């Protein structure tokens, strides 16, 4: 049997706010799933946002196609309240990077999580 990551719990201060923040960037609509706000990322992966545990900022990386990446940049360009940037060395400079031969960007959510989006695997 192939190993596939099925779901991941992301601790946040408010499960609905946290899940809607990411949904605004990548699409989808969170749904109630027990104590979680669940956001389906693709056919095999769901992110379960939980607000019943301590928040510890994490790093979550997503490989996107070019069209989805462009849609993400369009959202970021319209919202000055969202911190994003080209990466560790340059912080939240509101730019993209070209790591791995594609385009990439890091986005910080209100709970301190760092979401990384890129179009090519290094």
TrEMBL record:
One of its GO terms (molecular function) is dioxygenase activity. The keyword Ion transport does not apply. The keyword Repeat does not apply. It comes from the Bacteria. Residues 4-120 form the VOC domain. Keywords: Dioxygenase, Lyase, Oxidoreductase. InterPro entries: Glyas_Bleomycin-R_OHBP_Dase (IPR029068), VOC_core (IPR037523). This is Catechol 2,3-dioxygenase-like lactoylglutathione lyase family enzyme. It comes from Crossiella cryophila.
């Amino acid at each position: 049997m192939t190993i596939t990551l099925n779901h991941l719990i992301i601790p946040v201060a408010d499960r609905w706010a946290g899940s809607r923040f990411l949904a605004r960037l990548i699409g989808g609509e969170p749904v109630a799933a027990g104590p979680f706000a669940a956001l389906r990322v693709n056919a095999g992966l769901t992110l379960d946002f939980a607000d019943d545990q301590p928040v510890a900022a994490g790093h979550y990386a997503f490989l996107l196609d070019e069209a989805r990446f462009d849609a993400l940049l369009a959202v970021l360009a319209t919202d000055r309240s969202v911190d994003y940037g080209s990466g560790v060395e340059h912080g939240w400079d509101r730019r993209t990077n070209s790591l791995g031969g594609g385009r990439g960007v890091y986005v910080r959510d209100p709970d301190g999580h760092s979401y990384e989006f890129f179009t090519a695997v290094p």
